TrEMBL record:
Pfam families: ADH_N, ADH_zinc_N. Keywords: Metal-binding, Zinc. It comes from the Bacteria. Its cofactor is Zn(2+). Belongs to the zinc-containing alcohol dehydrogenase family. This is Zinc-dependent alcohol dehydrogenase family protein. Signal peptide: none annotated. Residues 8-342 form the Enoyl reductase (ER) domain.
Amino acid sequence: MKGFVFHGPGKSAWEEVPDPDIKESTDAIVRVETTTICGTDLHILKGDVPEVRPGTVLGHEAVGEIVEAGRDLHAVQPGERVLVSCITACGRCGYCWERTYGQCRGGGGWTLGHVIDGTQAEYVRVPHADLSVHAMPGTVDGKDAVLLADIFPTAYEVGVLNGHVRPGDSVVVVGAGPIGLAAIATARLFAPERIVAVDPAAMRLDAAKGLGADALADPVDAQELIADLTDGLGADVVIEAVGVPESFELCTRVVRPGGHIANVGVHGRPVTLHLEDLWSRNVTITTGLVDTYSTPTLLRMAAAGRLPTSSLVTHTFPLDRMEEAYDVFGRGADTGALKVVLGGEQHEVVAVRAT
């Protein structure tokens, strides 16, 4: 089979790789129908995630069909169409008992495309498949469902829920990439007073407006705008969805006393934490790797048409054009790419402006 292989910082290729085999009795082999590229994959290619070893097939999101199941699996069987979660869970360790699957100590957590071969391939081995794949509702298209493997649960759990968004809150989302846009869409479920999207790209701000942002700002002007909108107090909740020092430090300047900063972005460089300014302001800062405990809920919402997944997909490619898809996604400022999806029934590149 073929897969997209990381060969070290700045080096990767779509190439022949060994077919995956069942290694443990709780494994499943999934034929990949649809996959996507995550911003974290770009961080890996830049060398920001050093634990990813050269030779690893990247990717941690997919929709596909189970073609082989280990003998100790009970909830899944060959022929079943499933969503492959970005997080695997053993279901037995203390973290899994607390639904903190991202911290699983039984061989789970973020494994796919990280410490084992991932989903950007024709087939993938999924460990602990009983708890790590989800049956696909027949009404949800694979192109939409694949966004529920990572970006929507990440934005919802690590951003909106960790940030304690409540009705009537002022919410600021710094970064209007796929995660930030998903945070805007799911924050709206809690009826905040306003959502402010901050991003330097006009195209992404347009997408944010289409998903429900009430105010838009360039990072240069954001602090002044947010002060004006909140009578100088600052936002109740600020969600960091970029992963660079400048964006995090902006979050600390626009949060109100007693407010929440929910960091979602993947940081590859150290960030200065200005405790000399924050220590007396009762600010709560949370970080986190997604646990995906919300995935079943989000799947039900998608099946009911309650999540605007389609509007985030701007480009689709067949699997064998993975390298071109990476180029388009990596140059999002030039190409207008938000979320790039590969596979499914699409055989020509489609670019759709998000609205």
